[in-house]
Please model this.
Amino acid sequence: MSSFEPLVFSGVQPTGNLTLGNYLGAIRKFVALQDTHNCIYCVVDLHALTINPSPQDLIDGRRAIAAAFLASGIDPVKHIVFNQAAVFQHSELAWVFNCIARMGWLNRMTQFKEKAGKDRENASVGLFAYPNLMAADILVYRATHVPVGDDQKQHLELTRDIAQKFNWDYRERTKALDLGVPMEIGDETIDGYFPITEPLIEGPATRIMSLRDGTKKMSKSDPSDLSRINLTDTADDIAKKIRKAKTDPEPLPGDTSGFQGRPEAENLVNIYAALSETSNDAVLQEFGGQQFSVFKPALAELAVEKLAPIADEMRRLMADPGHIDAVLATGGERASALAEKTMVDVRRLVGLTV
Ligand code: AMP
Ligand code: TRP
Model:
């Protein structure tokens, strides 16, 4: 029972090249949701600071993600496209959430453990608090739906925990100021301020794997460029990477039960299904029993057909950085106005203003 207006929010970090995983797991869903929802899409440059990019890399990366959004078909007029740093309210709400979230909650985050590695003492405080800023990104708009890939599931659970604790801690003042929406927590109905956000993680492309190792996520930061398809790869690069993708000597199975112990085969079929917007079953009906020497060229052709127009449009947009900056600036102004409305309430709720 929620009376929050449906609103979609998601973000992508401007670190390195966008991959086919980002496109299929996230950006393509962003595009589809525009038909049914109001959407806000953000280049999360503050999050990128956690890996200490050079200033120029951050500037270039921000433009590249914005260009990828636009080239993929996100409409910055009907919806909002902006960069996180342009709206200081994200940082302000993140501080409030730093004081809501518990160390124990953040200590459980697997992404922090992976990124910090063995030397945790030397990891930045920003990397540790990263999920609180992500919760602030979403909740500063009181967004109800967040499309992401599978790797972000745990961060979205944390976002829900933060909203839930904030709602509970400030329930009386929320009621007194008449700012809340009735919601159930356990057996009680309270007036809560923040929605309990729904993750949108579904379809065949929630986790695209590396082309070199079917047990590892395809990632911008993998040292091997052969492990991923970048959105800006040329047709020749794409064909080469698919040709060199790791496989096994068996033909493709007749149905999905045959993927047991064959993560690379499953991944390539997943990619084909996602790109052609069908299911794995449908792909196996067509290619089951065939060798990779037949399947790989078909996959390469499909990938080039879908990605080349986006890459071309990205290159065209990147040639005019002033235009991209102007689109982001306009989006930033519109986002700021919405975020400030929330922060006026939040400052009153917590007692930072009267
Ligand atoms: P990031 O590059 O970490 O900012 O991720 C941006 C979006 O892409 C997030 O929603 C991720 O969950 C999604 N994503 C990243 N890598 C993959 C992948 N290999 N498969 C599916 N989704 C992904
Ligand atoms: N943490 C996300 C990632 O690495 C990026 C992100 C930041 C995000 N803020 C967000 C995604 C808010 C969705 C909503 O992919």
Observations:
- The pocket of adenosine monophosphate (ligand 1) is lined by residues 12-13, 21-22, 25-26, 148-149, 151-152, 205-208, 217-218, 220 (CB under 6 Å).
- Residues 231 and 244 are 18 Å apart (CA to CA).
- The longest strand covers residues 7-12.
- The chain has two domains: 8-204+320-350, 225-317.
